[in-house]
Amino acid sequence: MQIDHLTRTYRYDGIDLPVPPHLAQDPAALRAYHATLYPAILNAETVDAGIMGGAHVTEYRRAVGTKG
């Protein structure tokens, strides 16, 4: 049996976002940090994109709809 450790990758609009080590275990704080880089992340949906290339990928997807 072999145990593989996966890294977490957060992606927004096709861009891999940085994950500071002190925020890696706190998804809410990490989302707030990423929102300082891209404010639309505050309203984005978090989607588990699965495992790609040895990393567990989480994507922020913008909410699509009408303003009003």
Automatic annotation (TrEMBL):
This is PRTRC system protein C. It comes from Novosphingobium soli.
